[in-house]
Amino acid sequence: MKKQLVDIKKPGSIETKPTKTSTSLIFPRDLYRSWLKGLYVIGRGKLPQKDMALNALYAEVKRLMEHNQDAVIRIWRAFTSERDKLSLKLLNQGASVFAYAAGFHLINSTRLLGVLERAARDLDRIILQPKRYSCVVACDFGAGTGALSQTFFFHFGKKLRDLKIPTSLHLIDQNTKLLGAAQVFIDDLAFPPQVKTHKFMLQDLLVSHDANWLRIPETLKRSSDDVGQPLYVSFLGYVVNELKRNPKGFHRLFELMEQQSPKDHVVFYFDPADERDARGAMEVRELFHDLGYEAIYPCPRVAHCPMLTEPRDWCYSEFTWVQPTLQNLVNQMLGVSRSVLASSAYIFVSKSVAKDLKSTRRHAEVVVGRPAIKTDNHYRGKNKLFSYNVCTENGLKKSLSAKGEKQLRGSLFVETP
């Protein structure tokens, strides 16, 4: 029997009121509409009418969501509570790709938006350099529905176009239907990159420098009068933790990361935030460090991760956001609250990028540990002190912050009186 859905009033409303913190992310209206449009195309197999109003598009997708509710719940469980038994063949069944895009696309997009906001100054300094870069070549490994690459080019597409820096994107996944869905979302961008899809497993990656899928398209090369080199951007979204069960694929992927390390290369890496996977992600951070990369988010510290020695804590990021209306509907289906999103989120840059970048986080203090709540006896328990694990360039320290809202992991620590 299906769960009774609570009808949401004002179906045209894009944003609900913030309930957590003044630092909540506001999901971009155009990106929300693109999600709705993508779900419509995946669910109906055709484009919506060009003049379809947002309210009408919402209503159509809401009906699709209700019709596919069982699939949305099944796919959600398969990729969360039942991940240890996950079979990727599940995504070949019926409405599974629609369900995956409904349950995860917007969530993963929001996580990247949070990272882009926190690392905005560093990323702008790295990426927006027309005199240095001839083009941007992005690779989305285990792309799924392309949430990370779509969000990146939503954020940087116009800026790169204005600077006349051409862009290309390689979508890599073993599932043809997911690649088709990713193409739908990328095609809806106002300033899309050139896209090439590649259907193969990561263990079959060609590491050769001349691998066809990594070549820069001739149409992307600027005139001979222009100088510069490519900037490579890689997205590793919730794929490395799955490769732990596939040593050959894991080895192949990091062979490629090592091969790319002498070049100008930026890597966006996301994995789950539970203790097992987050500790695994901290070890992956060490692997990138050994390959010659530096972590510019969330880490203020260039050297090895000090959180690895903490026996009952681990590093990950948290983001609060103002959830779009249809996301609330998905939450109701799944019986979850996703007002706070967690992720093991990192940005790595190669040495050639790092040496010219004075990272804005290098001398900062970053919240990394679970805050312990301590009663402030001076106020007879009415106010509370939060005890934070804070990461600095010199290692970990404990810091107290009084009053205000609990500070989010991955954010810069703010000491309040």
Please sum up the structure shown.
By secondary structure, this protein is an alpha/beta fold. It has two domains: 25-354, Rossmann fold; 363-417, no CATH class.
Notes on the structure:
The chain has 12 helices and 13 strands. The chain has 417 residues and is of the alpha/beta class. It folds into 2 domains: 25-354, Rossmann fold (3-Layer(aba) Sandwich); 363-417, no CATH class. The strands form 2 sheets. Strands 1, 2, 3, 4, 5, 6, 7, 8 and 9 form a 9-stranded mixed β-sheet that branches. Strands 10, 11, 12 and 13 form a 4-stranded antiparallel β-sheet that branches. The longest helix has 23 residues, at 96-118. The radius of gyration is 22 Å and the shape is globular. The N and C termini lie far apart (53 Å). Residues 1-21 have low confidence and may be disordered.
List the helices and strands and how they pair.
Layout: E1 25-26, H1 29-44, H2 54-67, H3 69-79, H4 96-118, H5 120-127, E2 133-141, H6 147-162, E3 167-173, H7 176-187, E4 194-199, E5 229-237, H8 240-243, H9 247-260, E6 265-271, H10 275-290, E7 294-297, E8 317-322, H11 325-334, E9 340-349, H12 351-354, E10 366-367, E11 372-375, E12 384-392, E13 395-402
Parallel strand pairs: 1-8, 2-3, 2-5, 3-4, 5-6
Antiparallel strand pairs: 6-9, 7-9, 8-9, 10-12, 11-12, 12-13
